[in-house]
Amino acid sequence: MTGIAKTPEPPYYAVIFASERTEGEKGYGIMADEMVELASAQKGFLGIESARDKDLGITISYWDSLESIKIWKEHSAHRAAQHKGKTEWYQKFSLRVCKVERHSFFEM
């Protein structure tokens, strides 16, 4: 998935993950692709947007409910990726969960 996610009418939820990586690939790209594919198949998943430069990465996933977010957080493969993130891939990260109450979309 690339580009801007086309989400339904609000309300829905956004999980904003911002990170600074450690040096080296260490399998990160493959795991990131696998997590997007797996998340996309989860009940309640609405879309994803992601961008990364050499210093900062930001990924926003969209979900229909807090329950869907909780189930994804606890998914065994996602938990394994979270562990690798803390031990190998990230110098630091933040995670924010927000309720989207309004949105607009423009396309030329």
TrEMBL record:
Residue ranges annotated for the ABM domain, each copy included: 32-83
Q: What is this protein called?
A: ABM domain-containing protein
Which branch of life, at top level?
Bacteria
State the InterPro entries in the record. ABM_dom, Dimeric_a/b-barrel, Jasmonate_Hydroxylase-like
Which PANTHER family is this protein grouped with? ABM DOMAIN-CONTAINING PROTEIN, BLL5343 PROTEIN
